[in-house]
Amino acid sequence: MSSPNPLEGDNVPQHILALLTRLHAESLNQEAGIAKADYDASVIHSNMKDKFIALEPDKCQFVYQLARAINAKYIVEAGTSYGVSTIYLALAVAANCRATGGVGKVVGTEHEAGKAEKARTYWEECGSIVKDIVELREGDLRKTLKEGLETVDLLLLDIWTPMALPTLELVKPKLRPGAVVIADNTIGSAAGYQDLLEYMRAPGSGFTNLTLPYNNGLEMSVYSPN
Ligand SMILES: C[S@@+](CC[C@H](N)C(=O)[O-])C[C@H]1O[C@@H](n2cnc3c(N)ncnc32)[C@H](O)[C@@H]1O
């Protein structure tokens, strides 16, 4: 029996589920044509200018379910691309606000203007349940995340690995106790993540860490400062 989809359990509208299915298919289709060398740090920016590289559906559903479990209402996403994972995050925030009140936000980040523009059209297609929740910060996240963040419940690191630790350092002062940090591909890209993983796993870092057995590894860290 296949795993149930938590979005269906939360009655996410059919047109959004259909859009997600289409976008994931496009992303996986593109990725099938990308060689390992194309992800090299020296060429990744130019090679991935027009590539989704969306978080896989099972990971997106996990992050959705996690965001629901911790009642996340303020989420930062490092690496938005065409906004696929952002849709899941926004839907989770919207569901949390419906369930327990208040307002919420997903802060997305993307430095490719073309991707940002297209992402906005997908969120528009989803409707207000998504587009009203997302604030997209365009440009280099090392600048755009420097100011104006509220208390963060969840940080998704789905970004080129050299950006991961600088992002965490920027966002960490805003993490609430119990906030969750998710980093993608921490087994597959372990070498690139070395600085991040050493930082988070160091004694006294304030994080407890667990590598989840998704494809290429998905690190789940909980901020538990003393
Ligand atoms: C793996 S993709 C994100 C995929 C997205 N989370 C999804 O699931 O649909 C990483 C994105 O980060 C963007 N990026 C890389 N470095 C960046 C930076 N310094 N500031 C903002 N965006 C950046 C890339 O352009 C790319 O689109």
Automatic annotation (TrEMBL):
InterPro entries the record matches: SAM-dependent_MTases_sf, SAM_O-MeTrfase
Any Pfam family hit: Methyltransf_24
Transmembrane segments: none
Gene Ontology MF term list: O-methyltransferase activity
Family affiliation: Belongs to the class I-like SAM-binding methyltransferase superfamily. Cation-dependent O-methyltransferase family.
Gene Ontology terms describing biological process: methylation
The keyword Transferase is assigned to this record: yes
PROSITE patterns: SAM_OMT_I
UniProt xrefs under PANTHER family: PUTATIVE (AFU_ORTHOLOGUE AFUA_6G01830)-RELATED
Protein name listed in UniProt: O-methyltransferase
Source organism of this protein record: Orbilia brochopaga
UniProt keyword terms in alphabetical order: Methyltransferase, S-adenosyl-L-methionine, Transferase
Domain of life the protein comes from: Eukaryota
